[in-house]
Amino acid sequence: MAVYTQLTRSQIDKLLESYDLGELVGFSEISAGIENTNYFLDTYPKSGGEEADKGAVRYVLTLFESMEKNTLPFFNELTTHLAREGFKVPAPVLTKQGEAIFELEQKPGMIVQCLSGKAVGKPKVTQCEAMAEYLASMHLALRDFPRSRPLARDSDWMLAQKALLQQSAMPEEDFDLLEQSIFRYSNEYGSATQDCPQGIVHGDLFRDNVLFRRDEVSGVIDFYHACQATLLFDLAVMANDWAWNASKGDYDEGLLRAITQAYQSHRPWTDREREVWPRCLELGALRFWISRLVSYYLPGYQQHSVEGDTAKNPDEMKAILLRAQAL
Questions:
Q1: Quick one: which of 56, 57, 96, 95 has its CA closest to 76?
Q2: Backbone angle region of 117, left / alpha / beta, with phi > 0 → left and psi within -120 to 50 → alpha
Q3: pLDDT tens sequence across 17-60
Q4: 27, 37, 148, 231: which could form a disulfide with 5 (CB 3.0–4.6 Å)?
């Protein structure tokens, strides 16, 4: 989350007239994250009763800086489906007219209820296990989800970003590694990952997108990378972030084992998945290394944030990629 578009109190008050959320008592910018504009909204129910007795209620307002309005219904229906299945996810709050999407400053937006808990910087074994089990259960619950969204970061996307990065200030050594890594995916293991079970994935399960209360998952947020893909890719993205020891430049084997075993306790792997798992780790690192290279070296809206650090250093993901390639 970040802030690219600044909103005034009067703009938010006007927007909330379309909702039945009560009176705005406070709002603040959310500087974490890198893609959209986000604000906390604190409202107090206008009517009496049980809701008013609980005090102010917190919501999250998101303005989508680069996503088209017509792509958003997929994510709304996805989180609504998961919420109905009992998962703690940010399903959209509807307007008085039953709409999930509004438009402000010529950008689409949504309001969701703020989930409780906080992200963890250094996850414990028990927290890794809890999230891996949650993810496996989520994959199973999405088997009957009727909508689909194609994978955006495929081979064509990789090649397009490579062509753009070739004209940038990216170090030549890194560009050579990028070429080699894309070749490996396209010619050596990409088809093998596609032979594994497919389904709807979250696609961005970094630690800052998961909330905990003690060792229990209290919320999973930011579903805007969700798409149809290899299910193990989802777990690999998680493992690359949660089980990576940056100071040692290697995976924490205890955390990595906890993640894979906990996931399989709910959705056992196929023989093909066991064979391809190291390449899924590599693919997860490659896709996010490319996206961070693009944010770091190429001009775009993320260079115009008014709040928050939006360009993550790509070197850590490069280190994970190199380690995964050695597995």
A1: 95
A2: left
A3: 999 999 999 999 987 656 789 999 999 987 655 555 567 899 99
A4: 37
Among 190, 212, 281, residue whose Cα is nearest residue 244: 281
CATH of 125-325, one of 3.90.1200.10, 3.60.21.10, 2.60.120.10, 2.40.50.140: 3.90.1200.10
Q: Do the Cβ atoms of 241 and 207 come closer than 8 Å?
A: yes
End-to-end CA distance of the chain: 33
**Facing residues of 216 across strands?**
213
Could you tell me which of 93, 65, 77 has the C-alpha nearest to residue 148?
77
Q: Specify the pLDDT at position 54.
A: 65
Strands (E) across 226-299 are located at 227-230, 244-245, 250-251
- What does the domain layout of the chain look like in residue ranges? 9-113, 125-325
Contact (CB, 8 A) for 229 and 201: yes
Q: Alpha carbon 305 to chain centroid distance?
A: 19
110: tokens are 């949504």
For residue 159 the two structure tokens come to: 């090649």
The low-confidence residues of the chain, meaning pLDDT below 50, are 1, 301-308
* Residues in the chain, overall count: 327
What is the predicted pLDDT for the residue at 2? 59
Per-residue model confidence (pLDDT) at position 1: 45
CA dihedral 27, 31, 36, 42 (to 10 degrees): -20
Gap between the Cα atoms of 193 and 324, Å rounded: 15
Q: Is the pTM of this model over 0.85?
A: yes
Q: What is the CATH number of domain 9-113?
A: 3.30.200.20
Predicted local distance difference test score (pLDDT) of residue 47: 64
DSSP letters spanning 93-159: PP-TTS-S-EEETTEEEEEEEPPSSB--SS--HHHHHHHHHHHHHHHHHGGG-------SSSHHHHH
pLDDT at 45: 84
